[in-house]
Amino acid sequence: MRLVLEPLLRFRYWLINRRVRRADLITALESAEQTLRWADRLPEGRAAEQWRATFLNVIGFVRLEIGDLRGARTAFEESLWIEEELDPKSPETARGLNNLASVAYHQGELHVAQARYEQAIALRAAIDPMSLDLADSLSAAGQVLSSLGRADDAFAMYERALAITTATEPDSSAHAGVLTNKATLLLNRGALDEARSLFRLALDIETAADPRSPATATAWSNIGLVSHALGDIDHALSSFQRALEIDMAYTPEAPRTAADHNNIAIILLDLERFDEAIEHLTEALRIEQWAAPSSSATATAFLNVGYAHQLAGRPAAAVDDYRRALGIDAAIARSSRDVAFDLTNLGTAEHQVGNNDDAVHLLKQAVAMFEKFELPADGSQAGTNLAFVLGESGQIDAAIDAARRACAAAERARVLAGHPDTREKLFALNQSPFSLLLDMLHTRRGDNDGDEAFAVAEAARARSLADLLGERPIRSSLRDGAMALRLQEELALHRELLDARARLASGRTDAQAVRDLEDQLAECRHRLRQDAPQYANAVTPEPVSASEARSQLSDDTLLLSYAESTARLHLWATRRHASAHVTLNISAADVVPLVDFATAAYRRGEPGGDEEALAQAKLAELLLEPIPEALTADVRNVVIVPCGRLFHLPFEMLPWQHGVLGDVVAISYVPSVSVLHHGIRPDQAVARPFVGYAPTSLPGARTEVRRVAEVLGASPQDVHTGATKEIVAKTISGAQQVYFATHGLLDDQQPMQSGLWCTPVPGVDDDPVLRAFEIIDLRIDADVVVCSACESGLGRLLAGEGLVGLSRALFFAGARCLIVSLWPTPDIPTRRLIVRFAELMRDGSAPAVALRLAKEQMRESHPQTFATPWTWAGFVVIGAAVS
């Protein structure tokens, strides 16, 4: 019988594996169970036992894949018993231990899983210390340690595993699996760029091997997790949906498919598509309760169902779900990231049902766990919730302490995230602790609370811009070194992405092609920072304190710093020797329509009328009248730190005394005092007074540049009235003043694609726009850069960062201050204003003073042309513009 059966068993083994690879799991399981019965008919002996163990392992694997954890455990236990009887030190015994550890992990028995993996690791290391089997056990053990909160031990396991896979099979699915596990831990700890880089590498490996495999589905899920963490909801949802599509075809009843349903549900809840979300959550919970009712995956399903109840206004139901999740997770490990999440959510729900004491107790435990496990982003969220509940309970001092810790955690999470662009996306999502702390400090009104609130506001604004400006010397040093090729690669990807977005807009490509390029660009920037050792030593600039801000002011300068909080705008009016902190009677949301009404006609290219004047008067009442009169005496310069939509408002046109504010004081704007203090480069000697640019297609602009050049006594060779992008790049360095007279191109969705129109070069450069991503690598030495282009002062408004666009790129390139436009203005008034500004600059006025006087004098000399703010107020000065 053995001679007849063994060839048949070998064939059946091959056939079953083929069905597994094709995702025909149920047929594979039926075949394996039938073949096991045939193996039982073999004569007793070693060969028969080996065949039985082989097919038991197959049965266990398939049952694990389809989510039948109990059935998998039974099969693996019987298989391991056979293997240990045959040879307790064999590779097959190690495999059996590894398989049982995997089942224990999925069932939430983490300590059992840890012990099994340790046994498997010891056996496999003794058999072959460089085997992929050993790498698999090390990586899986790292997952268990991570779930137990032992992150450092988990990292050590992953590094051991990577040393093996990198040296042996770096293109294998085994290598991708280790990368995925390490990246998951990095993602949990907040290292978003590094996690995204490893996830993307794993996705590339898995897709090349089999684009429809479960491993590829897992890779897509992980890309979705990073996208969700950065607020890219569309990318996250499409990634999760791709994962679900693959897993549904492979194992519709498996825990991995339930995880896909959970991930999609969270996105749908964020999008307020509640009915669809509930469908996915119900399916996820059904699968998890059938497959592993005591696993962390089941707890996650309950957690998400509770979140849905909470959003729907059913906090009591949420409490029940959160308690069930906590019961499961705490039984697995009393202290873990999962438990801390459960405590956070349960604490917020208990507060909503009125159990404040319980809420405080739960949230304090959560904050302590997140701090223990060094998870600052999660800790910031829990700490913010704790501060809110304490504040609602009247414990204002304790609430402020909790909010301070939450703000500190948010800053740690921001720095960990990676590239400044990644940091700003994360920080935009994590402004709550700063807003809450501002309100609480103003409520308490202690002796130093006003100054502390100023520092909190500074810590919450333009932080990534300050980081970028601080790193400017590093990037400059890379342009001529070995990293120059990497910078060229980054530039090429920006251009490819620009083209891909244009093709997407015209329907000639799909959104995924654009997302792939976005991921490639992020990966390129990540590698650039990894490979350039200078970035490792870059210091994150500290926010400026109130006393430091006061010390920077001249005696005739008033600093007006606005900030958003949870309910109202805050204002700090600061002079060199005195200051005041007031809460304004308007919210950030209410500011938006007022600013829009005040500027709507001008943005349409119209003179405006009573509607705009009324809105301007109301803004003056809300934003300027609360300033204590004592702080406005003898003021000649005002420096304004805007927030939110105030970045679109020129304060110069607001009514003040018997005219407008711009009649009385020179006004300049800065993204933050910290940027002005740390980021704007110091004044320096330059080779020539002027360089100016205008495209061939704009005769009025060419006239403006020539006239300014005459005023400043510039050499004809510094007047470029047919300026191409190449000419700009070659000639802009070494000029004290730079003038761009051209059209501006605003892209408030993709601010790095904004730019200034240059002269096209047919056949050489199909894109005549000097983009922000090209401007950052110019070498500008100018004290002032004038952009007399439409809307050159606008950009994307990002919470916690302000305007992101052309102005940021020009500052990074080296400009000390900018003259930019907030709306389109007619050619002739623009030319008159800019030429007069140049004359005043030539005569020694500071940029802010020169712009104020130019506006005043033009309104006096040409009262009809400059009767409306449309023709004069749109030009503003940003940066180091006063003494």
TrEMBL record:
<keyword id="KW-0677">Repeat</keyword>
<feature type="repeat" description="TPR">
    <location>
        <begin position="217"/>
        <end position="250"/>
    </location>
</feature>
<dbReference type="InterPro" id="IPR019734">
    <property type="entry name" value="TPR_rpt"/>
</dbReference>
<dbReference type="Pfam" id="PF12770">
    <property type="entry name" value="CHAT"/>
</dbReference>
<keyword id="KW-0802">TPR repeat</keyword>
<dbReference type="InterPro" id="IPR011990">
    <property type="entry name" value="TPR-like_helical_dom_sf"/>
</dbReference>
<dbReference type="Pfam" id="PF13424">
    <property type="entry name" value="TPR_12"/>
</dbReference>
<feature type="domain" description="CHAT">
    <location>
        <begin position="618"/>
        <end position="880"/>
    </location>
</feature>
<protein>
    <submittedName>
        <fullName>Tetratricopeptide repeat-containing protein</fullName>
    </submittedName>
</protein>
<dbReference type="InterPro" id="IPR024983">
    <property type="entry name" value="CHAT_dom"/>
</dbReference>
